[in-house]
Amino acid sequence: MSFSNSRTACVQALQRWESGATFADEVLHSTLAEARFNVFDRAFLTETFYGILRRRSALDFLIRQLRDTDLDSETRQVLRLGFYQIFWMRIPHHAAVNETVNLAGRARGLVNALLRRAIREKDLLDEKLAEAPASVRFSHPKFLIERWEHQFTPEETARLCEWNNTPAEIYVRANRLKVTTGELLAASTVAEASGLHPLSIRVKQVPFQWLMEGLCYVQDPSTLLAVEMLDPKPGDTVLDACAAPGGKASYMAELMGNSGRIVACDSSRPRLERLRENMLRMNVSCVETRRVDWLARPLPFEPESFDRILVDAPCSNTGVIRRRVDVRWRLTPGDFEEMPRRQRAILDAVFPLLKPGGTLVYSTCSMEPEEDEAVAEAFARETPGARLEETGRRIPQRDGMDGAFAARIVKGGAKGAGGGL
Description:
By secondary structure, the protein is of the alpha/beta class.
């Protein structure tokens, strides 16, 4: 598909996302690949596509203030694009109107009138939006707002939602099998220590050479929690049960000095292939891959085969909505009942593979107690030989990084729950 400009591409990408089951990241990636825009058009497309998905409820609220009748899907996308430029971007209003109206086809007159009226009434519309319910102001489903206000406070929930609506910063971890953190910091003017973790570097853009030569891995500092709680040692035999695309496996290999054995598993062939490519690029030699469905039997491993096991379980992803902007629109209340059942089934499958005295870390990028503490505590309470030693959590609005949870469970010894990090 060819696109005449970045605005046309944005409308078509929004239409594709709205009408199918494809994730936003995949839609944007394929659109950029087809369009072959220059750097400025790529940046505009990325900003508007993700921005409109982040502000979807607020945009529709503003549109309804001026046109409280049904609109066809494409006209609504065009209006969302125009309103987003007017209310959330520093683009001259005349350019936002003229360029957007050109996309509207037979609805040009309607779109032109609504955009010009939005400009005239912008202050009033801003006031109305400020008085709207939190789910509208922050463009999050009402059920998510309600569960977070119960877990945190309304004020903290507002900060979390604003965090989710802000473009994510880019962090990398130096691949110390090849280079030190200090060497990477000294090699670039676009890199700085993040202040969130000693190994975490904040970059405006990842230098292409760093990626090609495997000098770093793009990784939020929150993801380091689970690996450090697992504490793999040189010579260990480690199972990474849900490993792709390999960020945690590569960090484990680094901590193990590339010595020992890490068996990295996933149920998806394409994701395992991506993991293998990442390991090769980063000079990781102690990782082998296996395609495994933990909910199927028989399993391809003997009991008590591993010193340590990491279960970075599939989850609701509520801790990473800032990066996965469409997660909020895909979740349903029922997911918080289904996800824990799946997570528990994976834990039940892998625990027999752990050696006596071994360590298992269960982790998610969820902030929901049903998927985190409740799963870990119930598993330790109901599983012979399992003892919950420690839990840790990262909360975006408190810690300035993605949300994450980890629990360390050991095999053998007295039962009991531990403290937190």
